[in-house]
Amino acid sequence: MSGKDIDMKSLSAAAQACVTKMQAEKVNEACIRTFLRQHEMLSSGATGSIPDSAIKPVEKLDSLDELTVQCENAILESTVVLKLNGGLGTGMGLHDAKTLLEVKDGKTFLDFTAMQMEYLRKNCSSRLRFMLMDSFSTSASTKAFMKQHYPWLYDAFDAEVELMQNQVPKVLQDTLEPATWPTDPSCEWAPPGHGDLYTALYGSGKLRELLRQGYRYLFVSNGDNLGATLDSRILAYMENNAVDFLMEVCQRTESDKKGGHLALQTKKTPGKDGAPATEKMVLLLRESAQCPEEDMESFQDIRKYSFFNTNNLWISLPALMETMEQHGGTLPLPVIRNEKTVDPSDSKSPKVFQLETAMGAAIAMFDHASAIVVPRSRFAPVKTCADLLALRSDAYVITPDSRLVLDEHCNGRPPVVDLDSKHYKLMKGFSKLVERGVPSMVHCKRVGVKGLVQFGAKNVLKGEVKIENPDAEKVYVIPDGTVLENTTALPSPA
């Protein structure tokens, strides 16, 4: 494709300005086309809203625990493992690739991911392909890390490992023109969500290259989810059932009620050669940003909508290519309109829309799509410092193949951690909390920390524990070796 393929005269002045800006930054054509479709939807007043009246709950799905058949080695050899690595973890106060954060035993997310791949290549298939989707914010530091620690990945980094996420302009809410911010021009751009995976694969030519090299399946997961590892039973399930797109889901709990859920929607397919249109039920993903306010109570009803997307996805590469070719090299996913200010650190800067898509929304684009229920052990992302505390504790153990899984004494349920957001939302405060040591939590069901607290060395938490410090200035240091079991811990009066 070339820029000549875009009919500029048919576009609004605002859309034309966006195209000109993207072409000046050498954004690939597939991304420009995808963005133009989203911009057109925005111009027409579309919000990407999915009301309750348009969908139905999913009643039953197959379970991974019930599968016993492993795939043939030839299928493993035609599989690509890709980790999303574009996030900075700004919500935790980080300013570099989130996957460079220390997780356990001095090792980072990227360490564990690389070690998992080393194990798979040694014990399953040496031809297994590994890729990272980086953003412009994470590429340099990730490449430097690989050079220092994993030369075998660094040597293939540019040619095979890295897939670069696109960037798109933020648009002004009032005119939909591209925003400008001379104080910091980088603020004018935004990543288009992890749904950009498909556009990045196609627009970079890597999708065609993988197919030419004989790869047939792609397994994608978040870089901060170390429970998401290759499972040959899922590949066998896809192969034996001719599934083109498969989403791993978990049963929703109260802690998951604000996240996206799986649902069913009626899809009409035009008939061929004068035949009447046909209807069938297809799976779709609804995110909270796509739910009308009046339906939010229903959205959060975990008994009604009982499955949530883990963002562990399995995709047939030939089917992906065919589907994108049918849509002119794009995948027309529902647009998510995020309202922001052009400079996130300046609430008085111009109001903008960031247009994003969700990777899992592609489930509605494939005729042969499916979902499978997986155990919670395959979903252990770190979105907050509370998640990190549980992962660093002895509640999680490292397997011989470098996975992090719950200790058997946890009975399949990780400890629920509630940290005071005033003090422990960011890594700076969290680091002080565990500066002397991470407590044992293998027998802990729930822990809450409120106020200025610091764990001592070799603390042990059991059952349900609350730790509270009402003193706004003095840190409550829990004495070394203290065991807290089903109690509320308060500092002793001075």
TrEMBL record:
Give GO terms: molecular function aspect only: UTP:glucose-1-phosphate uridylyltransferase activity
Q: Where does substrate bind?
A: 194
**Protein's GO biological process:** UDP-alpha-D-glucose metabolic process
Q: Which CDD domains match?
A: UGPase_euk
Catalytic activity reported: alpha-D-glucose 1-phosphate + UTP + H(+) = UDP-alpha-D-glucose + diphosphate
Q: Which residues form the signal peptide?
A: none
Coiled-coil regions, chain positions: none
**Keywords for the protein's UniProt record, in alphabetical order:** Nucleotidyltransferase, Transferase
State the EC number(s).
2.7.7.9
One Pfam family matching this protein: UDPGP
Q: Write out the residues that bind UTP.
A: 98, 165, 193, 224, 383
Domain of life per record: Eukaryota
Q: Which family does it belong to?
A: Belongs to the UDPGP type 1 family.
Q: Which PANTHER family does this one have? A: PTHR43511
User: Any idea what this protein is called?
Assistant: UTP--glucose-1-phosphate uridylyltransferase
